Amino acid sequence: MAITDWPEGERPREKLLQRGAASLSDAELLAIFLRTGVAGLSAVDLARTLLQHFGNLTALFASDLKQFGAMHGMGPAKYVQLQAVLEMARRALGEEIRSGDAMASPAAVRDYLRLQLQGLRHEVFIGVFLDAQNRVIGVEELFRGTLTQTSVYPREVVKRALHHNAAALIFAHNHPSGVAEPSHADMALTAALKQALALVDVNVLDHFIVGSGCALSLAERGAL
């Protein structure tokens, strides 16, 4: 059955207008992005097929052009649109955390870091540099690693903090395995960075570990 034959209140677009975007399922939201289906499949059916193939939205968003284009009805045009939507979301969240006290919007910081790091196939270590009022003055990829690990050097992090004249830092890195639980190495690194930065009066406010669909805060764990 075509979506136009559905009851009006159950059509994704109308449902979003009446009840808000949060009321829609992942498949319904994706169907609005797709706009049309393919022969034999409505946009919602096609969205369900994509989610079943990739497993979830996170994996779909992390797919490359070859993986995305291998799906029936998907091609470079849709891939470009999807990447543009994701980049706009990253930039909007980046603007939000730069507009004031970053610690006053912890959810925005968490969402921004998740969008930056989740789905990557290699480890990336990011620093968010803050001034004395906790306003963001810079976001940098500090180190990049392999599938399982990256090498982070406290001396280099201190140099970048001094370069930005930062008063505080928030760190984040991803686990390509998808498991956000901190390792012993993560805890030791956080302690080493905190100790090194304390020598130049820079506070470490948090360290997020990004996994599949989540970002774990060491500060919330009481591990800082």
Observed structural traits:
single chain; 224 residues; alpha+beta; 16% strand
How far apart are the first and last residues' alpha carbons, in Å?
Answer: 55 Å
What's the total count of β strands?
A: 5
Q: Assign an overall shape.
A: elongated
Low-confidence stretches: none
Mean pLDDT figure: 86
Q: Quaternary arrangement of the chains shown?
A: single chain
The secondary-structure element order is HHHHHHHEEHEHEE
Task: Using the CA coordinates, give the radius of gyration.
Answer: 20 Å
Number of helices: 9
Specify the helix fraction band.
40-55%
* Main β-sheet description: 5 strands, mixed
Describe this structure in words.
The chain is an alpha+beta fold and 224 residues long. The protein is built from nine helices and five strands. The chain has helices at residues 12-19, 26-34, 43-54, 57-62, 65-69, 76-98, 106-117, 154-164, 184-198; strands at residues 124-130, 136-144, 168-174, 203-211, 214-217. Strands 2-1-3-4-5 form a five-stranded mixed beta sheet. The radius of gyration is 20 Å and the shape is elongated.
